[in-house]
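Fold it.
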Amino acid sequence: MGIKTTVKKAFIKSLPVMAAYVILGMGFGILMDDRGYGTVWSLVCSVFIFAGSMQYVTADLLAAAVSPINAAIMALMVNARHLFYGISMIGKYRNMGKTKPYLIFGLTDETYSLLCDDKDYPPQKKDAELYCFLVTLFDQMYWIIGTLLGALIGAVFNFNSKGIDFSMTALFVTVFVEQWLTSKEQRCALTGIGAAVVCLIIFGESNFLIPTMLLIALILTISYRKRGVSDE
């Protein structure tokens, strides 16, 4: 498979994410402008943070001048979900070469949903690495473009930003439903639901998030190791 074919394949694969990320990025840009931060700050966040829901939270953290320690704890709580689906990408990313650091950095929920299916990977190793890199890069570029548009629109027009931050929750629900309907194996989804319900009952609504993510990571780590042993 040539470079042009790989680029085309990655672009087509990322198109559904483009539709979501441009709109969500616009919401983030508008939210940042509403909190008093201009286009430059919005772009810096989208280039160097690129964490979707955490960026929406960052807008409020910056506006409230939250301490670095509290911000770090909040980032851990919001992004802890990356632990459990990142585990499933260990094998895929093991031999990715120079692009591996960026692939790890850019692994969002939606990019994961595009890259977790082995059947879409090009057969040759170098083409597979380029494919993963391009899908990740395209997705971030969609978010950056949306952020830029939102920041510019927010600077020109006055918006009531109430409810914009719920758009990320809506996207997570959509991604979950899509994966549930298309995936043949629902073990990861059921693990997440079960762990969330158990921790919600034990720890309560205000404190269940981190225990849930730790429990999911533990279960999937054990499952991954058992699978590796059985494959050997």
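Residues 3-34 form the longest helix (32 residues).
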